[in-house]
Amino acid sequence: MTPLFTPPPLPLIMVAPNGARRTKSDHPCLPMTVAETVAAAKACFNAGAGALHAHVRDVSGAHVLDAGLYRELLSEMRVAVPQMQVQITTEAVGKYTPEQQRELVYKVKPAAVSVALREMVPEGEEDQAKAFYNWAVGKACAVQHIVYSADDLDRFFNLVAAGTLARESHQLLFVLGRYAAGQESAPEDLVPFLDKLAERGSGVSLDWAVCAFGHRETECLVEAVRRGGKTRIGFENGLWNRTGDRAKDNADRVNDLVSALKEHSLMPA
Hints:
Layout: E1 13-15, H1 34-47, E2 51-54, E3 56-57, E4 63-64, H2 67-80, E5 85-89, H3 98-108, E6 112-116, H4 117-120, H5 126-138, E7 142-147, H6 150-162, E8 169-176, H7 191-200, E9 205-212, H8 217-226, E10 230-233, H9 250-263
């Protein structure tokens, strides 16, 4: 039997510099255009980030699943920061269907994509999702599944067991504190995910990372690395450094995390 595609390891630090919702009214250094995103990615790579989690915006600044803009971004990244992995997103923001999300990936053919499990595989669309995941394996496209709760993670394991997610290894992103008061994450938000991993993760090859919201973002990510995970950081999720001060830009957030990991002996000094 031909081995299934095994995605490359997630980097220790992936940067998410803009997301789908924030704008320059939230922070003047939040990138909105392709050029701004590439410049931010290059600065974050120099600060220690190994990958870019990329959103693109239309001329009004709205998040869009636009294949042309993603191709432009990927092309510019290959020139500006060829060593950096680039992961596109299929985030629905309440307006894109699973079919539209899949169609974006079919058109762009990226090396990496993130998908929210509950958006891409709603109940009753498992067959369509299975065809998409099989296609991704054939195109050597690394799919990172976003899960927002232990229940999401439980469903992920059910889909793996059913053969819907055909891989030899899987990438996951645990979102901490999405529904917390004020959307402020805390390190203990990781516990339900780790409990579910301990319960059901035996025999499944997993590469997992964490993102977190608010003022304790760095603290949450340090705890993730301490527990064997990886990280996604940036203005999509948090604008503040450990000091409580607002970061000057995305590279400043990466520097804050790198400094914290080194202080805890979780990265080489």
